[in-house]
Amino acid sequence: MDFKCLNDVECSHPEKILGPHLEDVYIIRAYIPIARAAFILIDNKKYQMIDNGKVFEYRSDNEINDYKILYIDDSGYEKTIDDPYRFRPEISDYDIYLYGTGRLFEAYKTFGAHLKTIKDVSGCNFVVWAPSALSVSVVGNFNHWTPGMHPMINVNDSGIWALFIPGIKENEVYKFAIKTKNNEIKMKTDPFAFYTEKRPRTGSIVINDDFHWTDNSFKRSENALSIYEMHLGSWKRNNGDYYNYREIADMLIDHLKKTGFNCVEIMPVMEHPLDISWGYQVVNYFAPTSRYGKPDDFKYLVNRLHENNIMVILDFVPAHFPDDDYGLYMFDGTHLYDYEDPRMGRTPDWGTNIFDFGRNGIRSFIASAAVFWIDKYHVDGLRFDAVTSMIYLDFGRKPGEWIPNINGGNINLEAVSLLKEINDYIHNKYYNVITVAEESSTYPGITSESGLNFNYKWNLGWMHDTLDFFHEDPLYRKYRINNLTFSVMYMYSENFILPVSHDEVVYGKGSLYRKMPGNKNEKISNVKLFLSYMFSYPGKKLLFMGNEFAQKNEWNVLSQLSWNDLDDGKYVMELIHDLNNLYKNDFNFYNDKNFSWIDFNDKTNTVISFNRGNAVCIFNFTPVERENYAIGVDYLSRYIEIINTDSKKYNGGNILNESIYACKYPMHGRRYSIEIDLPPLAAVIMEPEDLNGSSGN
Q: What residue stretches are annotated with the Glycosyl hydrolase family 13 catalytic domain (predicted)?
């Protein structure tokens, strides 16, 4: 028999050569290139195996069902192993079929490294997809990282390779050695690795899934979704080092309770090589980064958040992946995971590779990566990054640099159908789990069931327009009021989240505090005014870490937030706490349909006002006090001030309106009116207290 394919690391069907076989006699073969001698152990007896160029053979007239192999390496070290090739790796024909049709949306249950017991023997079942490889073998400390020593089986010639290796235990480090058609051997991380070595090391690690969850009673709620966006590694540092997921848990819970957020959105925790990528250049889509601990540590963090009624959303990056040679790029020597044509497969602005959304194996991979975090880590939602770049074939490209779809248009039909399929699957399988699109175009139906079926879309237009308005000198804001009012024209076209995200406080854009004009006190007043406007406006809320205390410096991923320089920040946090409580507990505010203008055109005073249900919200965008400012109202009642950002409680000038009685003077198309004192650069929110039973209806 020709053993050349083994020695050349090109064997795609080692099961036909290795292990037990009935030929003219019973033969057991083992390929052990690091051995100088090998023996069969049968019933505690040792029998010499014949060395045929590192393929060791033992022949017997009798069938042998139970045996072990002992080999001796060049250093004299002896090791006893079970023969992998007397076991059939565990993968079903149906899973192979579903993966090939792009419909295996829980592929992580099959692919990757799974500890199992087969025929009363414990070990690990490895499965990987590499259809263009000449051979794939598992390498690790257990075989001295020797390519070809544990060749995998190309199951049914499907391009899906599998092997059960007895004796592999938890914490074993491994990679796949892939022989390409260019006769290169690439040492690749497992695309389905559930844990990896800490950077700069890149090995995959076998783990056991036995975490004990205690969050069964946790109930997800979307009525008032107030999201705290954070980057784990730069939120707080432990003398410059990262905190463990477990150490972060209670500190984060305390802060969220103090500020009133009921949901945390964590920037990508999927394993990535570069700190400065913020996690958006993912290599291992199924592994929480080892920067902050082990997978069970991250599960502990999610579990503790749930125990404290805090939802968890993860950033998910299904659009593109980086060039790292140990990762997905040219995985089997071909553009397996990305489009081969750079007009489709390369992002001009980011220098990353776009997934081939039309390839069925990739569809199974991306969908499974999304479902995995919901299933195995109990997360309550996923925020899909860079959805616009997935939808549009010409995203970031000039004419002639992109390929139209089959209809001649610029929509990536394959990406659109995949996003729809993932959302449909998640919403049908998991109760109340939400998906969010970071999408900046006017593509219709992002949050429609007949469209892409996301639950929410980031309202990036609102964010940019509102921040541009606040950046303006108050003297000229009256000319920019349309920046605030325009979004009302489309605010019900999708289900929106109002984001003030990490992208707006980095790369020279300045912190929220720095964006504001004026001196220190005016900047703080503007921040409080902005936050009150945001929490009063229809839409779910998202605020990036540091904004809740008006951090002065913009975000730096390489250091922690300025916790030692709170100064006025503690008053801003007090306001955030009160705004969150109002938003979460007052139907007027968490029901997004409760909105109507009172006056959106007072450019002379640069004041706008609107109703949220019964509540009256008034905003003075100038540093000038407006005394006896008249507002039309619907109720002949006493109006109670529930938020005033100028209050002493928030370190303001304390120009208050403790209670105001409406009069029968119609204004702004309403039957009654009130007069209030509007502090400079301040928000005032009032609600009616019906004293006499008259509502004006």
A: 229-570
Given the residues 265, 356, 380, 385, select the one marked as catalytic. Answer: 385
Chunked in runs of 10, what are the mean pLDDT values of the chain (697 residues)?
89 96 93 96 94 95 91 93 95 97 98 96 98 98 97 97 98 98 97 97 96 91 91 96 97 98 98 95 98 98 97 98 97 97 93 97 98 98 98 95 97 98 97 96 96 97 97 96 94 96 94 96 98 97 97 96 92 98 95 95 96 97 97 96 97 94 96 97 94 40
Cβ distance 621 to 529 under 8 Å?
Answer: yes
Q: Which residue among the candidates 229, 438, 465, 548 is catalytic per the annotation?
A: 438
Beta strands (DSSP E) in 546-681 are 596-602, 607-612, 615-620, 626-633, 638-644, 659-661, 672-678
Number of H helices, E strands in the chain: 15, 38
Burial class of 235 by CB neighbour count within 10 A (0 to 12, 13 to 18, 19+):
buried
Find, among 646, 678, 682, 683, the residue nearest to 660 by Cα.
678
Q: CA dihedral in degrees (280, 286, 290, 295; nearest 10)?
A: 140
Q: With CA atoms as reference, report the closest residue to 473 among 517, 504, 417.
A: 517
Q: Which of 489, 583, 482, 487 is nearest to 542 (CA)?
A: 583
Phi, psi of 579 (to 5 degrees): -65, -40
Q: What is the largest CA-CA distance in the chain?
A: 109
In the prediction, which pLDDT does 697 show? 35
**229 among known catalytic residues:** no
Q: What is the DSSP letter of 411?
A: B
Q: How far is CA 411 from CA 353, 394, 395, 435, 463, in A?
A: 18, 8, 10, 21, 25
Question: Which residue intervals of 37-155 are DSSP H helices?
Answer: 93-101
DSSP secondary structure code for residue 467 in this structure: H
Q: Report the residue count for the chain.
A: 697
460-495 residues labelled b (16+ CB within 10 A) or e (exposed): bbbbebbbebbbbebeebbebbebbeebbeebeebb
Between the two ends of the chain, the Cα-to-Cα distance in Å is: 95
The angle that helices 360-377 and 413-429 make with each other, rounded to 10 degrees, is 30
* Residue 694: predicted pLDDT: 40
Burial class (CB in 10 A: 0-12, 13-18, 19+), 284: buried
Phi, psi (rounded to 5 degrees) for 563: -65, -25
CA separation, residue 479 to residues 404, 483, 623 (Å): 41, 9, 16
Element (H, E) at 462: helix 460-471
Buried b (16+ CB within 10 A) or exposed e, 27-57: bbbbbbbbbeebbbebeeeeeebeeeebbbb
What is the pLDDT, as a whole number, of residue 219? 86
Q: What is the Cα–Cα distance from 199 to 329, expressed in whole angstroms?
A: 18
